[in-house]
Amino acid sequence: MLNFEFKNPTKIIFGKGEIEKISREIPTGAKVMMLYGGGSIKTNGVYDQVIHALKAFEVVEFAGIPANPEYEVLMQALKVIKEEKITYMLAVGGGSVIDGVKFLSAAAVYQGAHPWDILTKSIRTEVGLPFGSVLTLPATGSEMNSGAVITRAETQEKLAMGGPGLFPEFSILDPEVVKSIPKRQLVNGVTDAFTHVLEQYMTYPAGAHLQDRFSESILQTLIEVGPKVIENPADYEAAANFMWSCTMALNGLIQKGVPTDWAVHAMGHELTALFGIDHARTLAIIAPSHYRYNFEAKKEKLAQYGQRVWGIQEGTVEEIATIAIAKTEDFFHAMEIKTTLGEYTDDYEGTAEKISKRFTERGWLGLGEHKTLSPSDVEKIVAMSY
Fold first, then answer.
1. Domain ranges of the chain
2. SS3 for 147?
3. How far apart are CA 304 and CA 314, in angstroms?
4. Class of domain 11-176 (CATH, top level)
5. Residue 61: in which H helix or E strand, if any?
6. What's the CATH code, domain 183-384?
7. What is the rounded CA–CA span in Å between residue 236 and residue 229?
8. pTM surpassing 0.90?
9. Which residue from 3, 118, 187, 305 has the fewest beta carbons nearer than 10 Å?
10. Mean pLDDT (the chain, rounded)
């Protein structure tokens, strides 16, 4: 097991009817900006619950944060934060809204002239404008981590940021919200969380037995409850286990003491930036090709995954590992997730070369758990995903 440090300061308030507890978590006298997305919270009852819980506070609303939070929209919100002298933010939404608020938390205290530098120069935020969240769409785990990904349409870029100052102070997780989520978003949520676990697990054995079993249990739970919650989002037990699995998949716990990959995300982000494909679906496009391309380096972990998660008990390490990749694709297909780029766009020629060039320009010369994947390797993996 590798050395590690672990601290997660986010307070989780989990369960039915817990949105009313917001008022206990925000400092008395705070001027609150409530940020949300396209307005679905106004039809599913969440908006009314939040507004009622905030009745003792002065509240400024900012709506319209899109999926894949857009830099220009966030800059409009930043202007309001400064003009209104906001002292606390509340993200009400899924990972996109929470990620957007994390950027604003960093940008609100950033002293530089161009907040985009926070992303392009990988500036860590040690202390940001404080915020909490009310999760309405389980998927990204952003409600309990300090990372975010921001999109800039102008440059067709999607970049990551983070820092210890960007943990939500609290996050409210009410599984009741799941029953109003459209099927496409539920499918994305299951796929996103599943792949988050794989990024932290599908590397090489590091003697971290507990972390491996944590990861395997999350994968098994998603395989079990994912189809149930997609079929019947009102199934509270399935929804609760789905929601908590998504949070546990990326709150930092399962990556401690083990090597992690994240090359699938790096490539997937480029597909979203270039084509607007849903984040989760880009991961399903890249992951199978990534595992096949890096088969020799990953085959031991792939075989362990095949045995423990998919119950494949017969065959050599190579045979079990090969079947495990196919089982993963089958799982995505069962949820009607397409796993090749050509199924999303006819305009894919040259994509692999373009992404490889971008990685070279950014100095991303060694991806993956061994830091050995070069831009030319990335080009081959993306081309395999056509």
1. 11-176, 183-384
2. strand
3. 12
4. alpha beta
5. strand 58-62
6. 1.20.1090.10
7. 9
8. yes
9. 3
10. 96
